[in-house]
Write a structure and sequence with these properties.
heterodimer; A: mainly alpha; 82% helix; B: mainly alpha; MetI-like_sf (chain A); transmembrane helix (chain A); MetI-like (chain A); ABC_transp_perm/SBD (chain A)
Amino acid sequence: MRWDWLARNAPQIWDYLLQHAWLAASATLLGLVIALPLGALASRYSWTYPPLTTLAGLLYTIPSLALFVVLPGLLGTRILDPINVVIALTIYTVALMVRVVADALASVPELVRQSALAMGYRPLRSLITVQLPLAVPVIGAGLRVAAVSNVSLVSVAALLGVPQLGSLFTQGLQLDFATPIVAGIVLSLALAVVFDAIILLAIRIGTPWARAVRS
Amino acid sequence: MGGALTWLTTGSNWSGSGGVWARLLEHLRYTGIAMAIALVIALPLGALIGHTGKGVAAVSGVANAFRALPTLGVLIVLTLWAFDNLKGSLTFLAPSIAVLVVLAIPPMLSNTYAGIAAVDPAARDAAKGMGMTGGKVLTAVEIPVALPLILSGIRSAYLQVVATATIAAVIGLGGLGRFVLDGQKQQDYAEMVAGAILVALVAIIGDRIIALIGRLVVSPGISGRRVREKAATLETVPPT
């Protein structure tokens, strides 16, 4: 490791880190927001479950570099636009989370749903205020997987020249110099750990009853 | 997009040492070698862990950590190391194959042990009660029952490997990734998209073939259970 190189390039590396975090986080959040209604649909109307999950599985078979390259042509964006990366990763997140949300909602006991209905809750209100909170642990577990894999996928976009931590990898290759690459790997792993911790914290805050039972 | 179609339907792009056929064969060769090595390592190890129940915590921890590892960075670091320590064609090939193997092992390994560990204990006890030895229980009961999950692990591994073999073109390897990266260097967007479409096709077709093999080799008494699909959900990660 050449620490002096890191020190000299600290502002640039910091920029890459922020950009990386921003790309991965926005795709994860956007994917969750889109997957929630789709997953609720798949659990409410069982005939929509097979087509939705099959489509999700199919989207998963597209390699990320291929998706990054093809999207600009489909969307009319420029190839260097970070928006392509966000959209591609959002697609993967939705593909993963639709099934997770559907299965999580389906795992809420039927009696709970009926109790809510009996108390006069309309189906939509019961879904949002009763079933969804109870599904938080399972949805959260899926979101952890999505967030962590998004962090590692963002770096592939460096091959197209979208600046983020992956740019350190291509720089290191061009300079035949390991320091930026090791720094990129370490920062990317650290970012994944931070995202994971944030989601764990959100699950904890979102499920106060789980703590009450434990203590 | 139209440009990519023109590129793909131009005959001269398909022939020669840098043509589609040659690149496709290279891509399949890298994928095949890496998958074969990973299978030989991951399946017996996974079966052993699932059968004995030992080492599950360690393996699942390592598998999770790998999910966060940026493949591109690892590949480049290994290549820089190989530049100084290896000679000839191995310089490019060895690090690429190593990365592909490292990527393929976790999904295969974790699905194998999880599938075997999830076998109904009653079935296992019944097999033992019939006088089967430990090894016989594993091969005649546990592996057949776990086969759907094992195959889904092989599918995710394949998708990872096919996708990452594309990235390996960065360090000078052949394969379909060449079209994407050379196209980018020459500002030839049509070539890039054509390469991307070819990679996606290879990924999807291979995935379907493994699914088809699964339908043929999984015992009809076991296939079609929704349980296994649910269990497989979290093992699926988007391909690099």
